[in-house]
Amino acid sequence: MSARAVATGSINLGQGFPDTDGPVKIAQIAADAILAGRGNQYPPGPGIPELRQAIADHAARFYGLRYDPADEILVTAGATEAVAAALLALVEPGEEVIAFEPYYDSYAANIAMAGGVRVPVTLRPPDFRPDLDELANAITERTRLILLNTPHNPTGSVFTRDELAAIARLAVDRDLLVVADEVYEHLVFSGEHVPIASFPGMRERTVTISSAGKTFSFTGWKIGWVTGRPELVAAVRAAKQFLTYVSGGPFQYAIAEALGQPDSYFTGLRDDLRMKRDLLSSGLAELGFEVYPTDGTYFVMTDIRPLGETDGVEFCARLPERAGVVAIPSAVFYDDREAGRTQVRFTFCKRPEVLKEALARLTALHR
Ligand SMILES: Cc1ncc(COP(=O)(O)O)c(C=O)c1O
Questions:
Q1: What percent of the chain has pLDDT over 70?
Q2: Ligand 1 center from residue 79 Cα (angstroms)
Q3: N or C terminus of the chain: which is more exposed, having fewer CB within 10 Å?
Q4: Cα of 81 to ligand 1 centre, how many Å?
């Protein structure tokens, strides 16, 4: 859809990447590192020590979670590689992986690469809460792990403390691992982000994944990481060794610095995105979309039935020509395509004037 946006001159509210870069001073550190010859050759396999320390400090500062930079942290090529390496490392062929659908598109591919069997549990509108009975019923003798994503792409739901506590209890009772994709940890507008690793019995069975891309608006740098107990991190590292081995040397220095930004940076990012969420959500609602609430991430989920539309894939295919805007049909994030047939996802991580222009263009839907 991004290629389509370029080809048609459309405003791309499909793929989630900001149209403004992160802080200049962080970019400057990466540029300086390159020119000073820091990180231009293969960095250490687990990541540079400065970044591993910064990741540990960040987990302690925001969540009170303690990880040893020596063997409980691994730097990856974005969260994408972290998810892939975790699943390749921890899932044996034929084992089942439970994931809440709609889900981020790499999950299905990575479960397949690991030879695993995908078991979806559906989040349903309007508020896309996890159905804990459905989750419990999905667990079988063959279940290896729960692949969790909160704040959740594409629905924007943020799992509550109670929901996470219940999921954690199930994981402990049924002796399951959890791979927790928390890349949107700082993009929470209502409620709070609680890492599932912080619940009783969970630190030892959770591989937590995050990424600098979303938090610092440098999605092209692909600096992600994994935290967990040494045996789990070592397993993920063994898979990562033969995926990329290492990546992003100079950027690692910059993200090490970025993670120590003052609270005002993190709240500023959130407040800016909240304003953009409100702008796009209210505009889409005025245009007649059913707009579901977004508590976190930078996506808003809508339903197109009030516009007289019945198929999101077809709607999004025609949207560039009809209105000069690109969006993503949510059906692609579901195994149960019917469940998401009329849902369409928009991203709001764009400058306000771009969002306003997109809304103005979308009035063409009424002509
Ligand atoms: C839920 C989720 N996980 C992982 C990623 C990928 O993160 P990265 O760019 O760090 O690989 C994304 C990016 O959109 C995402 O939405």
A1: 100
A2: 5
A3: C
A4: 9
Of 73, 27, 76, the residue nearest 54 (C-alpha): 73
Helix (H) / strand (E) containing 77 = strand 73-77
Q: Which residue has the tokens 């409100």?
A: 278
Residue nearest to atom 16 of ligand 1 (CA): 153
Sign of CA pseudo-dihedral 22, 25, 31, 34? negative
Query: CA dist 240 to 76, 78, 109, 236, 244, Å?
Result: 8, 12, 16, 6, 6
65-109 pLDDT, tens digit per residue, is 999 999 999 999 999 999 999 999 999 999 999 999 999 999 999
pLDDT in tens, 126-164: 999 999 999 999 999 999 999 999 999 999 999 999 999
Predicted TM-score (pTM) of this structure: 0.97
CA of 209 to the centre of ligand 1 (A): 10
State residue 366's pLDDT score. 86
Q: Which of 183, 186, 209, 240 to mutate to test the pocket of ligand 1 (most atoms within 8 A of CB)?
A: 183
247 lines ligand 1 (CB under 6 A): no
Span between the terminal Cα atoms of the chain, in Å: 24
